[in-house]
Design brief:
It is a single chain. Helix content is 65%, strand content 0%. It is an all-alpha fold. The chain has two domains: 6-86; 109-152. Helix 3 (31-40) packs across helix 4 and helix 6 (107-138) crosses helix 7 (142-152).
Length: 167
């Protein structure tokens, strides 16, 4: 590849409106060469930045002309991006169930709830083991022990085992 002068790079950046790939191709160099040269030369960097700003100015002007010409999409875009201080914004409202407030639960509140559920589960397991032991002592089969547990309310609804017991 050939070596381009600073002046050649600057002119190519102006012609390409700051498009590095186009500028590099026109000079027969890589865009990475232009990147490296911008790092070393504040003047090349300034020319690049100015060319990019010019490109944005041109596009803004074109968009504005389209909006004035009745292009609804252009109007909406300008109002959403430049008219925020006048209320032209999209807002997304988030709410809780049925439009109510969003509930906030802290980690410690969740930990307490989990601890309570684990204690309840452990109590049920202990009660179930005690019932099984008592049923075994008096010679109840599994179905009769389960009926007794339902009667005293220590066991919730369980699917019918079809007379086969729990084991």
């Amino acid at each position: 590849m050939k070596r381009a002068t600073d002046a050649e790079i600057e002119a190519a950046l102006v012609r390409s409106i700051g498009n590095l790939t186009v500028a590099a191709k026109s000079l027969g160099i890589s865009r990475f060469t232009i990147y490296r040269r911008m790092e070393r030369s504040p003047r090349i960097r300034t020319v690049y930045d100015t060319a990019r700003e010019s490109m944005i100015d041109n596009v803004e002007s074109s968009l504005y002309r389209r909006a004035l010409g009745g292009d609804v999409t252009a109007c909406i875009f300008i109002l959403k991006t430049r008219g925020k201080d006048r209320g032209y914004v999209e807002r997304h409202e988030i709410s809780g169930p049925n439009g109510g407030p969003i509930s906030h639960v802290t980690k410690s509140e969740l930990d307490c709830e989990i601890d309570g559920l684990l204690e309840e589960l452990a109590d049920r397991e202990k009660a179930g083991a005690a019932r099984a032991s008592a049923a075994e002592e008096v010679g109840l089969d599994d179905d009769r022990a389960l009926e007794a547990a339902h009667a005293d309310g220590t066991v919730g609804d369980v699917a019918d085992t079809g007379g086969q017991g729990l084991g």
